[in-house]
């Protein structure tokens, strides 16, 4: 990523840094993404919830 200006102090720094090295303000230009494994865990929880809902629907009296 290219160099960006801090929106608080105007100092130029790499956009990859989580905060400005001059004033310590958080960088609003950093790319955010999934944590490793978070998408797989989310899909697993959704699948388990769907299976639980189906089992409960079949178990309930009609």
Automatic annotation (TrEMBL):
Keywords: Membrane, Transmembrane, Transmembrane helix. The chain crosses the membrane at residues 42-60. The keyword Transmembrane helix applies. This is Protein DnrP. It comes from Thioalbus denitrificans. The lineage of its organism: Bacteria, Pseudomonadati, Pseudomonadota, Gammaproteobacteria, Chromatiales.
